[in-house]
Amino acid sequence: DPRGSGRDGYTQGVIQPMADGRQRVALACGLRHRDRAVGATERTVRAETEAGGGGVRQTRMTLLGLLHLLWEDAGLSTWSPGVGRRRRWWPGVRHELERCAREIVPARGHTLADYLAVVGYGDADAPALVRATVERCTAEWRVLLVGAVDRIVLLPGREGGQFVSVRFDGAQDYDLRISGKAAWAASLQRRFPMAMAALARERADRDIRVIGLVAATARLVRQGERQIVQARADDIALMEVEPDTLIPVASSHELRVARALCVASRSFIKPLRFDAHRDTVHPDFVLTDTGHPR
User: Fold this and answer.
1) What is the reported pTM?
2) Among candidates 109, 77, 121, which has minimal Cα distance to 96?
């Protein structure tokens, strides 16, 4: 039910059911190289800012909204005792995200699966799949990289400049290097303070994991016998999740509640905000093991 989440914050047609059961989405961030990267970033920030006030609805879906759509359709925002440790097996998470991506149509003649590259630790098949996606998209399209983020740091660059380095968990197995403009550091701190605060800590001291979706211009570069994936981030969205269940949480309070519900063996849904304004009120969790969900 879209009324239980931020899906109702869009104008009609942003998420459009198709006759074959798939869904068409209108994205704010263009996926073709010819779409200006700066424009994509500006539209994302502006869309998030203009979402509130007088019931204004979004006319495009930002990268954060797309991440929420993927997570929700993959069933990763729901929990029941039967899920158990399966949620910790990243290849299974990848399969669900890829399944959903095949049902989302962002451009005529293409599904999201054509651009999506899922990065994760302990997934033997994924590096070859990521390289195949990059090779397929290099000439014309941006790649959408999704996975658990290990760190986002500002590093010194050439001629006294700086750049942002984004590293996914397990990236060493992919020979994946993601960089972005230095301005991303301040932008991400402003837009995703909880996620960035967690990433600033040592991994053992983090209460949450951070899932990232990066729209990037990517290419394969041969270095000796190695094939490096070099990606330049054009847009970035972050989402905080409980580490073991991958249930999204937007505050320390929600984190405590999510854990308490799991300990109590409850079944529930976490409604996601998509691009709704921060002042829009949705339930934190919806119980699904009672006659009257609440």
Assistant:
1) 0.91
2) 77
